[in-house]
Amino acid sequence: MMLQGKVAVITGAGPGLGRTLAVLAAREGADVVVAARGKDGLDAIADAVRREGREALAVPTDVAVPDQVRRLAAATIDRFGRVDVLVNAAFPGTHRKNVLDMDDAYLEQWRAAVETAAYGTLLACRHFAPHMVAAGAGSIVNITSMSSRTGYAGRSDYAAGKAAVHLLSHCLAGELGPAGVRVNCVAPGWIAGDVLDDWMRARAEAEGATFEEVRTRDVAAMALRRIATEEDVARAVLFLASDQARATTGATIDVNGGQLFT
């Protein structure tokens, strides 16, 4: 198994990609620590990991708060004595708003969103990486986005936050590489699910088209003619987390069905 005997920490472990990643990591042999702001969802993910026969720890955490991230790292080491894999996936829900339409309240929301992505990722690396350095090995995988390479109107918070993580990963790869710690990114495009379907329906209504017409047109613009699933994205993360990628650092794997070539 790809992660046999390893301990994997997943921040931003929500019910979608986070849950899928946690369950697949467990199937590949890892004990899993899940962290996010909401406790109820975390407990459900931890239960799913245990059903795969692995140990799980759920730690409610706001990754933008230093003391909470420090507590998360301490809880992980207290429970498992090590950390081999860190996956940073935390990013708050985002709304679509152009800069000229932002009031003071939304500007503060914009700042908080970028802080969660960039500063939250930095904090997690700051408190987990020393344990990897001491062990002489480890893998950090940061979830960025297709939007870290190309911006879209109304999504400046998302693009700025993900782009910051993208370049932060390059910096950390250079800093931590001599100690045997790898830092890479996975950049999803659209991910199949209810959120994407709702957005497509809204676009269809605005265009006076049907949902199927919009979906068919969008998929036809992808080289693989399919929208990536949560499992597609999670499999790329697991590869980078595993020893199969032991000579890979500072890299980004795009998982977007050929929607964007980089």
UniProtKB/TrEMBL annotation:
This is 3-oxoacyl-[acyl-carrier-protein] reductase FabG. Its EC number is 1.1.1.100. One of its GO terms (molecular function) is 3-oxoacyl-[acyl-carrier-protein] reductase (NADPH) activity. InterPro entries: NAD(P)-bd_dom_sf (IPR036291), Sc_DH/Rdtase_CS (IPR020904), SDR_fam (IPR002347). Belongs to the short-chain dehydrogenases/reductases (SDR) family. It comes from Actinomadura macrotermitis. It is an enzyme of class 1 (oxidoreductase). PANTHER family: DEHYDROGENASES, SHORT CHAIN, ESTRADIOL 17-BETA-DEHYDROGENASE 8-RELATED. Keywords: Oxidoreductase. It comes from the Bacteria. The keyword Repeat does not apply.
